[in-house]
Description:
This protein is an all-alpha fold.
Amino acid sequence: MRQLLGRDNVALTGSVIGLASVLFGWLTLRPNRLAEGTPLSLWDGLGWGNAAVIVLLWLLCLVLSLSLKGKLKPILLGVTANMVLVVSLLMAGMAATGLLEVEPDSSRVSLGVGIWLTIAAAYIVIYASRQKLKELPLWQHLVSWTGLAILIALIFNGLLDSLSLMQELNGREARFLQELQQHVFLFGISVTIGSLIGIPLGIWANRSRRAERPVFFIANITQTIPSLALFGLIIAPLSALTMALPFLREIGIRGIGTAPALIALVVYSLLPIVRNTFVGLRQVDPAVIDAGAGMGMSRFQVFRRVKLPLAAPLVAEGVRIASVQAVGLTTVAALIGAGGLGFFVFQGLAQAAPDLIILGTLPIIALALIVDAVMRVIVRLVTPKGTGGQ
C-alpha cells in the first residue's frame, strides 16, 4: 500500500493505455491505398520477439508509475516512454518492408489503431515525466525531444519508407512543402494582424466604459459563428466588392482564396487577444498606478512604464491562445481555395484515404505544439521579474 502512495496517476494512465494498445491491430495490410485492408495484431505484424519487447517496456512503465517518488523515477519513465516510441515505429517500418516483399507493388501497410494508441500513451507518459523534471531542465528537454529527434533521423534515413503514410508523403513531397508554407503563412499573418487590431481594442475597452460593451459584444458574436459558416459568409460580400472595384482583383484579392481566409482567421483571433489585453490592464494594482503618478509620471508614462509591462504576460498569453487556435482553424481555409495542410485532410476525406488525412493532420498537431511551446517561452520572457513568472 505504501508503494501506491507515490504513484503517478498521469503516467499510470498512459501505461495502462499503452498495455491496452497491444489488444488492437498494429498494422493493416491493404491491396492498394484505398481498399479496406487486413488488420494484423502486434504478434502477427511485428513478430513474437518484437511484441515481447514492447510489452516489457510498457510493463516497466507501469511498475515505475506505481513506485515511490524520487529524482530517478521521472528520468527512467521518460527514457522508457521514448524507447517505446522509437522501437514501435522502427519495428513497424521493418515489418512493413518484410510484408511488402511478398505482396504486389500496389500493396500498402498502414499503421493500425494499436500503434496510434501506443504513440498517444507514450506522449502521456513523457508529459508526466516532463512535469516532474522542472528542477532538472536538461533532463526535461532530453526526455521531451530525444525520441522525436531519433524518429526524424529514422525518417530521413528511409527506415520508415515502407509505411503507407511515408509513401503518401514521398509521392507528394513538393506539394506538401508548398502547403506547409502556406499554412504557416496564413496563421502567422492572421495572428499578427489580429494582434495589431486586438491589442489597441483591448486598451480602448479598458480606458472607455462606452467602448467596452460594443467591443466585447462584436468579439463574442464572431466567436459563436461556426468556422465554415464564417468562411462562407465572407465569400459573397468580398466577391461583390471585387466586382465593383476591379483593381482589387488585380492585386490578388478575390472572393475565394487567401483574402477571405485571412479575414476570417483575423476575426477569430480577436476575442482572446482583446479579452486578455483588457483583463491584463484591469488587474494592475491601483496602488502601483498611484505610486507611478506620485513620482511625477504622466498618464502616458504610467501606461508605458507601469501598466503595459505588468499586463504584458496576459497579453502574450492571449496571443498564444489565438496562435494555437489559428493553427487548427487554418485547416478549414483549404475548402475555399486558400491552401494549407487542410488540402490533404479534405482530399483524403474525398478519396477515403486515411493515410492522406493523417499526412495533413499530424503536421497541424506538430505546428500547434511548436507554436504553443514558443509562445510559452515568450510569455516567460515578457513577465517582469518579481511578479511570480520568473
